[in-house]
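Forum: Protein Structure Q&A
Topic: Joint prediction for protein chains with partners

I've read a bunch of threads here and the consensus seems to be that you should model interacting components together rather than docking separate models afterwards. I'd like to see that in practice. Below is the full input, 628 residues plus whatever partners are listed. Could one of the regulars post the assembled result?
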Amino acid sequence: MRTNTVSAAASPKRSRERRSSLLGQSLRKLMHNKLAVAGFAVVVFMTLLCFIGPLFSPYTDNRINMAMMNKAPSLKHWLGTDALGRDIMTRVMQAGRISLTVGLASMLLSVFLGALLGAISGYYRGITDQIIMRIADLLMTVPNLPLLFIFGAMLSEWKVPTDYRMYLVMLMLSAVNWPGMARMVRGQMLSLREREFMQAAEVLGLRSSRKLLHHLLPNIVPLLIVMATLNIGGAILSESVLSFFGLGVMPPTPTWGNMIDAANNMIDFQNHPWLWIPPGVSIFAIVIAINIFGDGLRDVLDPKQKR
Amino acid sequence: MSEALLEVSHLKKYFPVSQGLFGRSAAQVKAVDDISLTLMPGETFGLVGESGSGKSTVGRTILRLTDKTAGEVKFKGVDVHSLSPAELRRLRPQMQLIFQDPYSALNPRVRVGNAIGEALLDHGLATKSEVRGLVLEALAACGLSAYHIDRFPHEFSGGQRQRIGIARALILNPDLIIADEPVSALDVSIQAQIINLFSSLQRSKGLAYLFISHDLSVVEHLCDRIGVMYLGSMVETASRDELFKHPLHPYTKALLSAVPVPIPKLKRERIVLKGDIPSPVNPPSGCKFHTRCPLAVERCKTEIPLFREAGTGHFVACHLV
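Posted by a regular:
Agreed with the consensus. Here's the joint model:
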C-alpha cells in the first residue's frame, strides 16, 4: 500500500476524485453505449438465472423418470423433458453454472499466465523474452481446436474421473489461450517502456518493482479487462465444442455442449427440438452478449484497438 | 577545472541504421559528434541549434538514458557511463531531466502526489509520513495548489503539467537539471511563467541548468553561457553577452539575425540560410556547415575546422575567424 500513503490523508475528498478518475470516465462513457449495456444486462441476467434459478426448481435431483421421457414443453416442465425424463429448464440452468464457471476460471488463469509471462517478456526482453515467446509461438502454430481435441482424447485415454474433467478442461483452455494474451501484453509493455514517462521514471531512479507495478501495470489493466471479457466468450464456446464432441465435461454433469450432443441424432433433431434449442440459444446468447459487451468496453478503454 | 559540476569531453553518440535481412548496421547517424562542455555549480548553460542538431541527444547521453559511443561524461568527477546500474540509480536524484512534452512525461495513471513523491520513497530520502509534506512544499514552490495533490495528470493544462514535471525533479534536491526544451510545447504567456519559475528556483536553490532550446530569446533571458550546435557538433561557445554582441561563426550570425525584435521600423540584415540541415547519416566533409554557409571557401570543403579559443572564453569552429 505504498502508493496510498500520499492520498490516504485526503480521504474526505475521495469521492470527488473518484469521479474524475480515468476509469470513472470510461465507465460513464460505457453507460452511453446502449448495445454494450444490453449485452451486460444479458450476461448478468443469464448468470443470475443459472446460479439462482435451480434453487427454485423442483427437479434438481436429476431423477430418471421413464414416464416423462421426451415430453414437449408444458406448464410443469417449461422447456420439456429429455430422453431420461429430466427437466430441460433445470438442466440448462445447471449446465450454465458449469459453462460459466469453466469460462470464468479458464479466463482468469489464462489472463494471469498471459499477463505475467507477457509482462516479464516485455520488461526484461533479451533471452527471457526469446524463450517465453518461442514457447508461445509454438503453441500458437497449432490450431487451438485440434490441440484441445488431442488433450481431450488424452484425458479420455487415461480414464480421468469425470469429476475432475471439468477442472482439467479449464486448464486445457488456459493452456491454449495464454499465448495470445502474453503477446498482447508484451507488445503493450514494449511500447510503454519507450514512452516518455517511463524515461522519466528511469531518470528519477525508481526501482524496477515500482516501475512494473505502479507505472506499467496500471497502463495495461484496460487492455487486460477487454481481453479478459472477450476471452470468457471464447472459453465458453470452446468448452461447448469440446463437450459436444464428448471430449470436454462428461455426462451426467450437464453442460450446454453435451446437452446438444445428446440430441445429436435425426429423430431428436426433427421431433424433439426442445432438447437442443434451449442449450443452443443459451450458448448463442451468452457468447454474443459477452462479445458485444467486450467490444463496448474496448471502445471506451482501449480506443486504439478499434477495427 | 576539478570543481566543475559537469564535464563533458569529446562525447559522441552514433545511432546505427540497420539495413538488410540480418540487421547489420550499414550506416550511422552521427547525432552527437565530439561535443565538449563544462558546467559550474549554479551556472546555466544554454544549448541551442535547429531541429535535428543533436541537442536532446546530448542531454540524454549525459543522463545515460542512451549509451555513449565515445567520450566521457563526468558528474562531480564521477564517470556516469562507467557506473553499475545500482550506483547509477543512487546518483540519479542529483541530476534530473525536465521534458519537452509535458503531456507525455507524466504517467496518465499515476496521481500527481504519487508521481512527485514516489522517488523520495524509492531512494529512502523521506519516510512515508514525511512525503506528503514535502510534496506539498514542492507543489507550492512550483506555483501549484495543495488540492492538486490527488489529481490525475489529465486534469491539468500544459503549463500546470510542466510545473508538475519541475516539482517532480525539484523534490529530489538535484544539483543539475537538464531542461530539454521545457517551454517549446507551451504557449507564449505560459512560457514566460515557466522561465521565471526556472530563474527563481535557481536563485533559491543554487541549481545548475543545462538548458536545451531552439529559442534564442529564451536562452538569452536565462543562460550564463551558450553553446551553438550544428549537425551534432558545437560550432560556437561563449558567454551570453559575448555571443549576442559578437557572434563569430556564420551559423550563429544567421541564427541571431532570425530572432525577431519588437521594433518594426528597425532595418536589419537578414542572413537567410538556404536548404535544410544535411542528413547526419552522411554529413558534409570538412566543415559540416559549408553547404549552407554564405562565406564558404574551398578550404571549408576539405578541412575540418578546429574548435579553438578566439577570445576569452569564446570558442568557435570556423576557418574564417
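Residues 20 and 26 of chain A are 10 Å apart (CA to CA).
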